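Recap quiz, item 2
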Amino acid sequence: MIYQGKKRYPLTEVVLHTSATTSDWWKGKDVNEMQDEIRRWHVEDRGWRDIGYARVFSPDGRMALGRSIYSIGAHVKGRNRGTIGICMIPIKTITKMGIVTDYYTDDQIYAVKHYIKELSELTEIKKGSGHNDYANKLCPDFKVRSEDWL
Ligand SMILES: [Zn+2]
């Protein structure tokens, strides 16, 4: 089991997020560059002590590290204890209705599922959810169902 913070909250849930980045923000960046830039937004712009998410996945399936999975994240108000925030960097697509939505690639989804599987060997993940389950937000732009991700 993985426990977070001094009070040792058991890590049992994955919360998926999207980032407010442009479609090609990630292109040409290695994972360290992505990590550095997200860290600047969260630490310098928001005043947090580290990246709010624990892991960030690019559309081509690479993983950047955020804060430690052993510390409490800063990704979903009121639900940071015992959860891990995973951010998927989207490719923006425009629907027939002219609405911009976040699109995730198969490589990226595979990488996230693979990571959750590895994580499940270290701690008992009981639930997968989306930021939109806990806040009045679209993030990650689709309904996250546990059975699709665990
Ligand atoms: Zn979110």
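Helices lie at 31-45, 106-120, 146-149.
The mean pLDDT is 95.
End of item.
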